[in-house]
Amino acid sequence: MPDQIEKTDPGIVDAGTVVVDPGLTPEPEREKPRSLWDDAWRDLRRNPVFIVSSLLILFLVILSLWPGLFSSTSPLSCDLSKSRQTSESGHPFGYDLQGCDVYARTIYGARASVTVGVCATAGVAILGSVLGGLAGFYGGWWDSVLSRITDIFFGIPILLGGLVFLSVMKDRSIWTVVSFMILLGWPQIGRIARGAVITAKQQDYVQAAKALGASSGRIMIRHILPNAVAPVIVVATIALGTYISLEATLSYLGVGLKAPTVSWGIDISSAAVQYRNAPHMLLYPAGALSITILAFIMLGDAVRDALDPKLR
Amino acid sequence: MGRYVMRRLLQMIPVFLGTTFLIFVMVYALGDPVAAMFGDRAPDPSTAAKIRHDLNLDRPLLTQYVLYMGKIVTGDFGEAFNGQKVTELMGSAFPVTFRLTIVAILIEIVVGISLGLISGLRRGKIVDNASLFFTLVVISIPTFVSGYLLQYFLGVKWGVVEPTVSSGAPFGELIVPGLVLAGVSLAYITRLTRTSIAENMRADYLRTAVAKGLPRRRVVTVHLLRNSLIPVVTFLGTDVGGLMAGALVTERIFNIQGVGYQLWQGVLRQNSPTVVGFVTILVIVFLVANLLVDLLYAVLDPRIRYA
Amino acid sequence: MRGSTRAKWVVSAAVIAMAATACGGSSDDDKGDEGKGGDSKGIVRAYWSDPQNPLEPSNTNEVQGGKILDMIFRGLKEYDPKTGAAKDAMAQSIDTKDQQNFTIKIKSGWKFSDGTPVTAKSFVDAWNYGAYLDNKQLNAYFFSDIDGYADVHPDKEGAKPTAKTMKGVKVVDDTTFTVKLTQKFSTWPSRLGYKAYSPLPEAFFKDHAAWLKKPIGNGPYKLESYVKGQGAKLRVNAGYSGTDKPKNGGVDLKVYTDGNTAYSDLQAGNLDLLDGLPAAALTNVKTDLSGRYINQPAGIIQTISFPLYNKKWGTEKAKKVRQGLSMAIDRKSITEKIFQGSRTPAKDFTSPVLGAPGGYSDGICGELCEFNPTKAKQLIQEGGGIPGGKMTISVNGDTGSHKDWADAACNSINKVVGNDKACTTNLVGTFADFRNQITKHEMTGPFRAGWQMDYPLIDNFLGPIYKTGASSNDSLYSSKKFDKLLNQANAEADTTKAIQLYQDAEKLLVQDVPAIPLWYQNGDAGYSDKISNVTLNAFSVPVFSDITVK
């Protein structure tokens, strides 16, 4: 009985979210029924974690768009005679091995690193959710084929894949790195999305909506999506951090972004071997990386909590 | 159940072929390995041609793949450029990496699940925030940084552990590398467990268990934890393959001649027998681990049954 | 019970998984005690990394393979560890009257470590093996000057050899053989210290696979055990007849994945000798090791070569740009700040280890190798500026710290031309890919080139790299004047005159700038307090036989 097998296929429970139906709690007092999104937004506006992390992210975005606002020194104008010197007036973070200003490089490095992190995560989340969601929602052949394709890409270790893929690419721009991350990263989200969708599909309220004659599209967007999105958000926010740090590892292996791009990853990788002589070279880009990751994880947590009616 | 396992095993075949072909194409795209064998000198054309011919490099890609797979079926994985058989290389690399992976997974399970459990039970409290902070630090430091730092401070400066792993790779020497390797996955597991615990805390069966007056310890371990581990187990399953291959950086820093290191060398020298051979085995590990995970669900969640 | 059946399935699946992954099982040869303690008497524990090719003398072209071959083989000549001068080792005499026909007499009484004698045949067989095309030896070109090479090793792709042995090499008796070269070559005998010319025992030809597992040679050490990926144990060869008998009990070569890792082990006392220190260690090495650190000139020069085949770089006008770029690089600062003095700014195209008698002269490059921002800018402008306004320096990103110096060189150039983005480093992912782009002549901008001498003579720094059609002429530089001078020098019997001719040729390079000399790479090594008397030879390989162990 293949059909039954699909239903009980363990992938179902991937996300481990045993969702309790939010539709059961009637809210008769309201004139216009509030959607889950409205609820979430009301929740978020009052959540200090959300406010702090949003402000931080807003700051990072501004930093990425207009780094010139924060630093008048060019990250590329370097004076070798100042190699590895610590801070002095006008250059609060000191200099790196090449005698470039670490403060300027940290400011200018935000653009590449944040772009890589955000774009790779967004791409992975979209591609993974769509393919995983389709597999989960339609089941049957869709599921079999999509799941096997997921496995094929999942089977290639990401670091190895990156090493080969980026060695082949002669021009390693931000977009090459992002597209490689999406290409090999989506199966992770895909599996989770698939499991979450299958779980949500079997809930009573979805069955009820179906019985009431709701269209597939409506069911997907109104009922399944909000319930399947939580596990995706949790994994995606952590993944964002790992993508930024993966960029650093790729630089360490010699296949990272190419100059004249400035990125935290490039700086961290060249600072790593200098940790004994010039810890400041490592401290600032790594600190910036940590703060960025913190902001996104906090945001992810807050959004996830807000979208989960059980936690209200 | 037996039929289910059979079906899964059969499904592995297309995945196996797909992945190996993909990696074969990628290594092929890296280009000709022969020029590099001559170091900084230009290769002399006749020797280079002879080497290319003997490695089948002068054939079309598809023929190369078929010839290669044909040999693999008979157990011949080819040779690395230093004349060593790839099977021999795998025989020495896999056990070492296997041990390293076990250490890493144990650390992930013990530390990750405990941290996740505690912070899930005390959401929003100091413990929770501390664990978030810890997770953050672990994720934001790339392995090559944490590897060098731990090696220097623990191994060289304070002399607490051996800075490198000797050729036998005993478990004792693998603890620090295992910790470094486990890093990022550890963070995932902590976050996943925390989320999962927080959700299941509000489940009906848990309320029932508490209402029944069961001791807290039993409620947490048997009812809460068992049900919350499913996503964690899924993650671990998919992580095994990633850990084994992703150990590349860790293995390089701690002098472990394992799978990751050999793969890296294979890529650098553009030696497709090494890369494809190792990935072949990794894909099998990955697929079997996934199957195991799926079977484990049935143990963890009594609602799941395989026809 | 349902639960237990499930568990059983899980267990059996686990067994399959173990079987599938364990593959070779745990290896039994793990039990070695190497690396630990170091109290086995008189043994030096030294850094090594796995040789990239099978350990045949004519197939080994990189330092790590060379290191072990140096210990287990002695050729006709050897290079003096201090001066680098070639002197007789196994050779009794090498005579010639016409610089083309040589009669070689070897010393009798030498034995391979398996007890068989070293005869003239051992040499002749080894050379024929090395030259024969079907053996695919990477160093076959070392025999290309011998008459009959073309028959055993046709140059054309896909051509089949028409003979198995070279007609120019003949055994006369047990201790004598003759060599006929294709043309006059006065300095040919001093090449014979190179490991490709080593003799091979009969065991090599009888059971090749077994020999490769455990090579047998005639050197000061013999191989006791060799485990690929782990290391090699070498012990004193009691039957060695040379003069440089080892002063220690043996050497354990330990394979490392990375130089930084080996450095950690050296600091922790698990390793005695590390040659070729990682760049990151250079700042601290003196204090870390309380002065147990050597840093001395070696026969290695680093250059930036230009793709003269490319329209942008090959023109007469671009020559001015090339000259300007050479003057735009602040070699002194880079060697000090990036390399911590382990490199010396270059003043010619060879190496100071040659010494004045070997052809080195610090006045050859002159102004071209001096940092001069004003003149550099002027020259670049006269040449029409950097072609296309932008250039890259290509280096391989997988080994060494090439990125660091390339970045610094670019920054130096950028400052001179006043544009932050004019020059950038192009990191090529793998060495293999890097070499492919070079040998296929696909480079569109200057690229890193390094040259480690095969033997300490000036012609080795010129002929193979800059002669028209030479094997390492990656820039495709071609100058009739230069070629002519080299040919004259090769045929010149008088060494002083020959060197004068070589230097005249070298001066042409300063005018034409097919490459920019950057710096001479030093050999460096750090060692533990357990050993002393550590020196490096002219090839920056440790002189193992001199090391004493406390």
TrEMBL record, chain A:
Spans through the membrane: 49-66, 114-137, 149-168, 174-193, 224-246, 282-303
PROSITE patterns cross-referenced by the UniProt entry: ABC_TM1
Gene3D superfamilies: MetI-like
Membrane topology per record: Multi-pass membrane protein
Keyword Transcription: no
Start and end residues of each ABC transmembrane type-1 domain: 110-300
Family indicated by similarity: Belongs to the binding-protein-dependent transport system permease family.
Protein name, as recorded: Peptide ABC transporter permease
Protein species of origin: Wenjunlia tyrosinilytica
UniProtKB/TrEMBL annotation, chain B:
Keywords: Cell membrane, Membrane, Transmembrane, Transmembrane helix, Transport
Compartment annotation: Cell membrane
Name listed for the protein in its UniProt record: ABC transporter permease
Highest classification ranks of the organism: Bacteria, Bacillati, Actinomycetota, Actinomycetes, Kitasatosporales
UniProt-listed Pfam families: BPD_transp_1 (PF00528), BPD_transp_1_N (PF19300)
A Gene Ontology biological process term: transmembrane transport
SUPFAM superfamilies named among the record's database cross-references: MetI-like (SSF161098)
Nucleotide-binding listed as a keyword: no
TrEMBL record, chain C:
Domain Solute-binding protein family, chain residue ranges per copy: 89-472
Signal peptide residues on this chain, from the entry's feature table: 1-22
Biased composition (Polar residues): 50-61
GO BP annotation list: peptide transport
Record-level Gene Ontology MF annotations: peptide transmembrane transporter activity
Region: Disordered, residue numbers: 23-61
Recorded GO CC terms: ATP-binding cassette (ABC) transporter complex; periplasmic space
Domain of life: Bacteria
Keywords assigned by UniProt, alphabetized: Signal
Protein name: Peptide ABC transporter substrate-binding protein
Protein source organism: Wenjunlia tyrosinilytica
